[in-house]
Amino acid sequence: MSLVALIDYGSGNLRSAEKALGRAAQERGLERHIAVTADPAVAAQADRIVLPGVGAFADCMGGLTALPGMVEALREAVLVRKVPFLGICVGMQLMATVGREFGDHKGLNWIAGEVVRMTPSDPDLKIPHMGWNELRVLKDHPVFAGIESGAHAYFVHSFVYRTTDKSHLLATTEYGGAVAAAIGRDNIVGTQFHPEKSQATGLTLLGNFLGWTP
Fold it and tell me: Which residues are identified as catalytic?
């Protein structure tokens, strides 16, 4: 049975993500063991890794680096072994070069870019951006198979990921301007929205991820 490591570093809706991943695997008939873990040894052995995240960039990065050996285990698994990786919300943002929330803070630098405060063109739009919004899928990607532009997903965030290379932008949403909704390269993908809260769209994406062989 394939091992999916759901990383527990004190910042994420782990129960909802665990349940959604399990349901997505069941619906696809995939044998996947979802392991919620703070153990870098488990991450090092995983066939897939999911990094959730809720809260401020610096706090989340601090929580991740506070687990001895975890960042190193993730880098080895994702960048060297090329294990499929999914970052969710702040878990996606941590892949940036730098996060600019309450100062500048180094990220994992897996997909070059910066995380900056949302600045909608319409001053009446509230921050955080919270609720359902339409996706605009920019390119074909296995994780977005069966998800068309116009599908709805659930967002909760005040900061946005600006990729240095626009080819890494997989999907956007509109909130006073185009906002990164998903990014990716090689074996790495991230969603600003919460697939575990996005009903059919989210289950489709999670099922695709669980069956993805980059």
Answer: 89, 194, 196
